[in-house]
Amino acid sequence: MAIDTIHSEAQLRYLKGLSPFVRQFTTRTWRAAEFPAANMLSDARSVARIYAATVSDVDVVRLLDPSTVESMTVVQTDKTPMYGLPSGLHIPADRSFYMSLGFMRSCPPMPMVGPGSFGHPGSGGSIGFADPDAGVGFGYVTNLWSFRDDSRAANLAKAVRSCLG
């Protein structure tokens, strides 16, 4: 039995033992609900496509004007303390997330394609983002939540950066 299979079986056993609150994430009611900024269910192609359409034409459709993208991606948080933590609480710079209006920006713990990239991670290692300079969208989803340090999305983003030069 492969280590990933063992890990997946362990995840399933773990999820089955979780509270009713967490188990409800797999119900039809939960999936049909609309929670702003949470519970998006999608496939990687659709995530990449919608992000791409924010920064370039996709089938002759561009969702946002470049000036809107520029305005909404201005970093709103201090890049040193995470989410404006009070002084005295220090998060190392390599662990700080940069937030714009509704999106995370490319930063040390979540590198995307370039410094202008914006997007957001999801549960279990999923992520979607766009890069206005490269005109690309990126989507990565997982079949199961990862309860360990999972570098697959970061490795794929690194490969995209490499391909774009």
Automatic annotation (TrEMBL):
Superkingdom, taxonomy of origin: Bacteria
Protein name: CubicO group peptidase (Beta-lactamase class C family)
SUPFAM superfamilies in the record: beta-lactamase/transpeptidase-like
Lineage, broadest ranks: Bacteria, Bacillati, Actinomycetota, Actinomycetes, Propionibacteriales
Domain Beta-lactamase-related: 29-158
Organism: Actinopolymorpha pittospori
